[in-house]
Every structure is written in C-alpha cells, then in structure tokens.
Amino acid sequence: MIFWLLTALIIGSALAVVLLKNIVHSALYLMVTFVGVAGIYILLEADFLAAVQILVYVGAVSILLVFGVMLTRRGDIRESNPFNRYKGIAALVALVLFLLVERFILGTSWTLSNAVPPADTVGPIAEAMLSDFVVPFEAAAILLLVAMVGAIILARGVTSRHD
Amino acid sequence: MINLPHFLILGTLLFCIGLYGALAKRNAVAVLMGIELMLNAVNINLVAFSRYLKPTEFVGHVFAIFVIVVAAAEVAVALAIIINIYRDRLSTNIEDFDWLKW
After folding, report:
1. Is some CB atom of chain A closer than 8 A to the CB atom of B45?
2. Which HAMAP family match (chain B) (predicted)?
3. Hey, are the CB atoms on B44 and A112 less than 8 Å from each other?
C-alpha cells in the first residue's frame, strides 16, 4: 500500500518536473520526487541512505538548482522551461527503452535471498567503505575537493592576466 | 506482496521520465534536473538489488553513496559551467551552445 502511494507520488511529481512550463515549479516538484525516493529507501530498509538522500538531494542539490535558475533567469518565468525540437523523438526513445527494460525485468527469474538484513545499516556500510572500498572512498573525497575548487573557479569567471 | 520487480520497474519508469526530460528540454538547468532523476532511478535499482539479492552485504548501499557523491559534484560543476556560459551568451538554451559546430 505504502509502496503504491510512494510510486504515485514519485511518478506524478517526476512527470510534473518534465512537463511543467515554469522551471521554478519543476524545481519544487523535483524536491517532492527526492522525498518520495527517500521513502522508497526506508521501505527497502536503507535508513542511512534515506537520511543521505534528504540531506544531499533535498537539502543541497535542489537548492543549487534553484540558485542556477535564479542566476540565469531571462525573459518570462512562466515560459522558462520549453521543449526543444526533439520532443517527439525523445519521447519515442524513452518509451522504447522502458518497454525493452520492462520485458527484461519481467522475463528474468530472480533468485531472491531470504536472509534478514540487520536493523542498523550504518555500521555495516562503514565497515564495507573502510575495508573493501577504501580506495574508491578516497577517490570520491578527492573528486569532491576537485569539483568544489573547479566549481568556484568556473563560477567566479576566469580573467586573463595579460592586460 | 511487493517484490523486487516492482522496485525495478519503478526505477525504469523514473529513469525513462528523466531521460525524456534530459533529451527534450531546451533549458540547460532542466536538462540537469532530468539527469538527477535518472541518477535517482539508478540508486533505487542498486538499493533494491542489495535488499533482495544480498541483504547482509551492503555493496548496493555503498555504490548508491558513491553515485550520490558523484551526482553532487556533477551538479555543482555543471551549474558553474552554465552560469559561465550565461555570462558570455546571455542564454541557457542548449540550442545556442554551438561552439563545437563548424
């Protein structure tokens, strides 16, 4: 029951993100979609990921996107999110991909595990991250640092020193 | 009974909506929103596989965290690039971004 409610929330607000004409409304519905995905994580017993989803997506990425809209606004905001000329062919590509993947999902027989996941997921995630995945963990840290420095330099604007 | 295919189809549907947004929108920020929807769909898939196929190992969760890290870095850099292009061309229409055409 909760799954179907969350699915309706996610799909409905995702369609609103794509179809609405006003890009600020799209950004707000994007936040609703992210909250719905966090609900799906709780349903899948991934409580830590649900918290990360709320913190990073709803708290940071959505705000960044709204800032992006604010800093690049031009013309009428009510017509700020139009389709381009590939609207029809993009719908066709998305539909064909969906039908293809759906056939594969429904045609596969999954060997499900009956093991019960531990109630607390933070500890096992930390152990996996700092033992098997320690090199990707450090790489992700460096990636975040480089992305932060790069974003600051790009957004400041590069000025030449020759003049 | 909600099972693994339900979550996978939800992820597929969300991915295709995001793909449609990324391909069919004219505003570059809207294209970024579509990409974020696609990354979220991938995360749903990863966590669902982790929950139903290997519930005692947390490989899917760790992967999802890395995807979230890369998504946050990507959106910051992409918005900086969009703001920089906007300063130069006074437009966020991706059809105006044609430096590489000849």
Report:
1. no
2. NDH1_NuoK
3. no
